[in-house]
Amino acid sequence: VQLQEWGPGLLKPSQTLSLTCAVYGGPITTEYYYWSWIRQPPGKGLEWMGVIGYEGSTYYSPSLKSHTSISRDTSKNQFSLQLSSVTPIDTAVYYCARAVGTSWANISAYGYWGQGTQVTVSS
């Protein structure tokens, strides 16, 4: 399985970040696969943002829920992240990743990761 994410590298405050992750090597609808967005701000640890399950259910980090949305396009085998009203605090490397089973809130459960994409929010 390979994951590849992409999106704009630079945004201004208040804009909406949109990232897409393409999955190669198997359908995202495969049972018990969970697909997440995880980010790492400079000098900080990994932060789990949210997940979309094989059946389409979504769950978000409570701290980000109000301005985060994850969706999918099963025809393209892709899933996407939208983060609205970004601020410089949202500057980070963003990763898409896959977990198997219900431990999706635990970052150590993710065995497959994209290469990461740098997103910088600056005026």
Question: Please, could you describe this protein's structure?
Answer:
- The model has no long low-confidence stretch (mean pLDDT 96).
- The strands form two sheets. Strands 2, 4, 5, 6, 9, 10 and 11 form a seven-stranded mixed beta sheet that branches. A four-stranded antiparallel beta sheet has the order 1-3-8-7, with no helix packed on it.
- Helices cover 0% and strands 51% of the residues.
- The protein has strands spanning 2-6, 10-11, 17-24, 33-40, 47-53, 58-60, 68-73, 78-83, 92-100, 110-113, 117-121.
- The chain is globular and about 40 Å long.
- By secondary structure, the chain is mainly β.
Main beta-sheet annotation: 7 strands, mixed
> Unreliable segments (pLDDT under 50, ≥5 consecutive)?
none
Shape: globular
**Overall SS class:** mainly beta
Strand % is: over 45%
Tally of contiguous helical segments: 0
User: Approximately how much helix is present in the residues?
Assistant: under 10%
Distance between the termini: 37 Å
Q: Give the SSE order as H and E letters.
A: EEEEEEEEEEE
User: How much is the radius of gyration in Å?
Assistant: 13 Å
The number of distinct β-strands equals: 11
Mean pLDDT equals: 96
